[in-house]
Amino acid sequence: MPQYLFSTPRLGFRTWQPFDLDDFAAINADREVMRYFQKPLSREETQAMIDRMLRMYEEKGYCYFAVDHLESKELIGTIGLGWKTFEADFTPCVDIGWRLGKKWWNKGLTTEGASACLDFAKQLQIPEVVSMASVGNGASIQVMRKIGMAYWKDFEHSELRDFPHIQQCSLYRIIFGSTEER
């Protein structure tokens, strides 16, 4: 039985384990899942991502977590918090993001998991969390709205200059402990 850092009625959040590589590599190799990213990832690139997440968790106490469906015990993908330092007028910042296998889409799992991650951010006393998605990624933008994030602005993502079809992004944010919009 995996040791979960926190859970929801349907999801368990944990750090990455060696046995996650095959399932996560399959998710990252799916062209439809990766439609709003630069490209599908190889097994080696997936391992490098897992390694980065483990280092981030050690350094920051959060990462894009491995997420299991509690009933089936399957890895559904990743939902969690990241530290972003790319060139922008709002970085460095903590962001929330997700990537689920297609089997798990349209079941409310992303919203359920992202809400739990925002609660986790509050416990860590992170004052503000942002989220970004390519302007065409309506599903992710809808999740941002459902979890209580407010639209902030659109921007051109500096790391996506070579990918003009996804470079224009919408940025949402939530500020904890504040009722005013900044």
TrEMBL record:
InterPro entries noted in UniProt: Acyl_CoA_acyltransferase (IPR016181), GNAT_dom (IPR000182), N-acetyltransferase (IPR051531)
Species of origin reads: Algoriphagus oliviformis
> Where would I find the N-acetyltransferase domain in this sequence?
11-170
Q: What is the protein's name according to its record? A: GNAT family N-acetyltransferase
